[in-house]
Amino acid sequence: MEPFAPLNIPLRRRLQTAAVLQWVFSFLALAQVCLAAFVLLALSDWWILALLYAGWLWLDWDTPSSGGRRSRWVRSWTVWEQFRDYFPITLVKTVDLDPRKNYIFGFHPHGVLVAGGFGNFCTEATGFCRLFPGLTPHLLMLPFWFRVPVFRDYIMFGGLVSSSKSSLSYLVSRPEGGNVAVIAVGGAPEALDARPGALTLQVLNRKGFIKLALKHGAQLVPVFSFGENELFDQMENPSGSPLRRLQNRLQSIMGVALPLIHARGVFQYSFGLIPYRKPIHTVVGKPIPVVQTPSPSSEDINSLHQLYLQSLTDLFEQHKHTYGLREDQHLTYI
């Protein structure tokens, strides 16, 4: 691979790189920029605008936990098509889903920045609404981010909502159906193991979404995103190492993981924070029928959890050869 990008790269590829650059910036720095801008506005002669927004924020505080406030216009921006084509990202449907029911999509693996989750469920670039008519996807994100002024409004436009228990319950308890709650089950801790070739999922002790699926009768759907872990390299941080202990400590305090990642740059291919051009194929599996159980027992939860893990394993094994994995590669659950 050449260390520097050739000068004669087609314009379409440059536009794709620019689209991914703004997405990386949005994930890694936009929240901090929005917070700083709000503080500066509050300290300026235009402080009244900051005060008015603070009032709006107070009135709108619960919206991220009540279905959010999506914008079809934002989800359909052309920049998301460029973002999709960079990798590229593909959404793969295996069966039809009944729009009269509510669903919980268990998204695996988390990866570093959940690129497949964002591209497929926060934009219309891969055609979610065309593939699954009558369903509305919501990608769940840590509640912390919805407390940042302006940034919260921007991410809600894409269909992001809070990952709080009340938020998930709100989505899957709608009697009219048609809601899809997408959960990156492994959460922030799984991002610390996201590196090329990784097939270890943190799911054995993740049962909260199982309990809520039972409580509200939501159908469970395993989703595996092939290629999600191939986008970034990560510094070695084996369990028990000083770096991993520090990362775990920071994650427990801040609620967000801080993987030390690197991939390529904008003008060179040797080092940077732009993900590699690796294809992502997000496969949506078959729904697991769930009988509503208002007060599920531990036995109910464990039984459905085992069924979910088996369905996820089957989904992976059925499709791994199609997307370039070897016969001896299998999922590991921790």
Number of domains: 1
- SSE ordering: HHHHEEHHEHEHEHEHEEHEEHE
What structural class should be given to the helix and strand makeup?
A: alpha/beta
Radius of gyration, whole Å: 20 Å
The CATH architecture comes to 3-Layer(aba) Sandwich
Q: Can you put this structure into words, describing what you see?
A:
The structure is a single chain. The protein is an alpha/beta fold. It has a single domain (11-333), classed as Glycerol-3-phosphate (1)-acyltransferase (3-Layer(aba) Sandwich). The protein is 40% helix and 14% strand. The protein has twelve helices and eleven strands. It has helices spanning 11-42, 47-59, 72-75, 78-86, 115-121, 128-131, 151-157, 165-172, 187-191, 208-216, 242-254, 298-319, and strands at residues 89-93, 103-108, 136-141, 160-162, 179-184, 200-201, 219-226, 233-234, 261-262, 280-284, 332-333. Strands 1-10-7-2-5-3-4 form a seven-stranded mixed beta sheet, with helices on both faces. Strands 6-11 form a two-stranded parallel ribbon. A two-stranded antiparallel ribbon has the order 8-9. α7 links the parallel β3 (136-141) and β4 (160-162). It is globular. The mean pLDDT is 94. One of its GO terms (cellular component) is endoplasmic reticulum membrane. One of its GO terms (biological process) is triglyceride biosynthetic process. InterPro entries: DAGAT.
